[in-house]
Every structure is written in structure tokens, then in C-alpha cells.
Write a sequence for this structure.
């Protein structure tokens, strides 16, 4: 059978698995077939994750071919395989918005026994240094974003924050990408990660991350005209920053073109309230700093 399978092209390989899976019992031969790569370094799993057809049945079949503890190592190796763009099937399914496939791939891992491996799986980057979280955020797939974040439990907060902090080839975080398309729900999901963190320095560091154009998330939200994301970012930052000089620094930050978030909002959306919101927040921050200075000098 193996020789016959080798003659199939990519689409035929998928059709073969869909139409013939009930008749095949030689798991070792199937595993060898599924592990085989085409010229683009794609396995059957990459191809399935890229197609528009109903895939849940065939994904179950492919993964079940590796059933048994003795095949677990081989299964994880299979999931870790990258195509010519350094994408795993998780990257592709996250980008396409195939929530069921994402969950099937994540459920392969035992949350206790395979914790190191699943985190390694999530941290994998494609040729543009994007994780599955980047791709799900960029394409507006909120449920997939939540599934990826929920892999981490409270004890792994450090690894989760490392995951959020990852920047792609353009130095964009998942937060930057979500703000860029104006997806408020994903922005909220990403920021909510820090709710249980007592030390808010990492949250401030996250918000102050700059892309290759030296823009923070505030620049990005301001130039896309999303008032709600601007409000959320400013509220979260103001609440987290005990040192209000950090907030002032955040508001006054200039991008590569020497523009602040206020400049961008005023220039691109003169009729919106974004610029006014930034000014009011800035004045409040400066007033706080002035009061603190006077108190320090004993003048108040």
C-alpha cells in the first residue's frame, strides 16, 4: 500500500484519508504516510489545516492513528513539524480561524505530563517570527486566542507573559496586531492576563513595547481611530502605574516620524475624541506629578 500512497498528490492524499480511513488498520503504515512531507515540507496535517472542507473527522482520524502511550513521542514530533515557511499546523489553523482543529491539536498534550512540550509547541515561530497567538490576533480569531492563552495555568504566569511579549519580525506583539485591526475583545483578553499579577511592571512593559516604527499600542490604536481601545489602554496603564512619570512618558512617546499618539489622532481623526482623551489623561498625569513634587519639597 505504501507505494500506492506515495503516488498520490496532496489533494489525493487528503481525499484518500477521508474516503478510505475505515478500511485501514495498519497504524505503522498510516503513521509513516502521515509523517511524509511534500516538496513544501508539508505533512497531511498541514494540508488539512489549509483546506476549506469539513475537517474535524479527518483530523481525529489522523491523530488517532498515533493512539497509545508508545506512540505519544511520535505524535508530538508530528505536530511539531514545520513546512517551508516554518509553520506548524497550529500556525495555519490559528491563521485560518479553524477553532476545532486548534483545540484538537492542543488536546493532544497532557496538561501535566506534556507541559514543557505544549509550551514549546505554542512558542514556535514561523519565518516571520510569529507565533500562533500573533496569527490568531492579527486575523481576529478571539476564541482561538482564548484557547491558546488558557493552556497556561496560574503557576505558569511567567511563561504566559513571555508568550505575550514575543515580537514578530516587525517587532509587533499580538496586542499591536489586535489593536491594528480594531479588535477590542482580543485586546481585552490579552490585557486580562495581567489581572492576577500583583507586580504591574510587566504590564507596563507590555504596553510600552515598540514595533519597528517605534510605535506603542497607543500609537496604533490612535491612528486606526479606535476610541474604545485607546480608552482601555489608558485606563489599564493609569491604574497599573504607581509612578505617573511612566504614564507621562507613555503619552509623550514619539514614533519614528516624531509623532505622538496625540499627533496621529489629531491629524487623522480631527473630529474624534481620541486626541482630547489623550490630552486630558496627560494633564491629569502632569498634575499628579506636580502635586507629588510639591509634597516632596514640603510646599504643599
Amino acid at each position: 500500500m505504501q507505494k500506492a500512497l506515495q503516488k498520490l498528490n496532496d489533494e489525493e492524499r487528503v481525499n484518500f484519508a477521508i474516503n478510505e480511513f475505515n478500511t485501514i488498520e495498519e497504524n505503522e503504515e498510516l503513521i509513516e504516510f502521515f509523517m511524509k512531507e511534500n516538496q513544501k515540507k508539508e505533512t497531511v496535517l498541514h494540508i488539512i489545516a489549509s483546506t476549506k472542507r469539513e475537517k474535524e473527522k479527518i483530523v481525529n482520524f489522523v491523530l488517532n492513528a498515533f493512539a497509545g502511550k508508545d506512540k505519544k513521542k511520535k505524535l508530538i514530533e508530528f505536530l511539531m513539524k514545520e513546512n517551508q515557511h516554518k509553520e506548524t499546523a497550529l500556525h495555519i489553523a490559528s491563521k485560518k480561524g479553524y477553532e476545532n482543529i486548534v483545540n484538537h491539536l492542543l488536546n493532544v498534550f497532557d496538561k501535566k505530563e506534556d507541559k514543557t512540550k505544549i509550551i514549546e509547541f505554542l512558542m514556535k515561530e514561523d519565518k516571520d517570527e510569529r507565533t500562533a497567538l500573533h496569527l490568531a490576533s492579527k486575523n481576529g480569531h478571539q476564541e482561538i486566542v482564548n484557547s491558546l492563552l488558557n493552556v497556561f495555568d496560574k503557576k505558569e504566569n511567567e511563561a504566559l507573559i513571555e508568550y505575550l511579549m514575543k515580537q514578530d519580525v516587525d517587532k509587533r506583539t499580538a496586542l499591536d496586531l489586535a489593536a491594528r485591526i480594531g479588535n477590542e475583545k482580543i485586546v481585552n483578553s490579552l490585557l486580562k492576563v495581567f489581572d492576577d499579577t500583583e507586580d504591574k511592571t510587566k504590564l507596563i512593559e507590555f504596553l510600552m513595547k515598540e514595533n519597528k516604527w517605534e510605535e506603542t499600542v497607543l500609537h496604533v490604536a490612535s491612528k486606526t481611530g479606535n476610541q474604545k481601545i485607546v480608552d482601555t489602554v489608558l485606563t489599564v496603564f493609569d491604574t497599573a502605574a504607581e509612578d505617573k512619570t511612566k504614564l507621562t512618558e507613555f503619552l509623550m512617546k514619539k514614533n519614528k516620524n516624531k509623532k505622538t499618539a496625540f499627533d496621529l489622532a489629531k491629524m487623522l481623526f480631527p473630529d474624534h475624541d481620541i486626541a482630547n482623551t489623550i490630552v486630558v489623561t496627560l494633564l491629569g498625569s502632569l498634575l499628579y506629578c506636580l502635586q507629588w513634587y510639591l509634597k516632596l519639597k514640603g510646599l504643599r
Q: What stands out?
A: Confidence is low (pLDDT under 50) at residues 1-5. Residues 104-195 form a domain with the Serine Threonine Protein Phosphatase 5, Tetratricopeptide repeat fold (CATH 1.25.40.20). Residues 274-296 form the longest helix (23 residues).
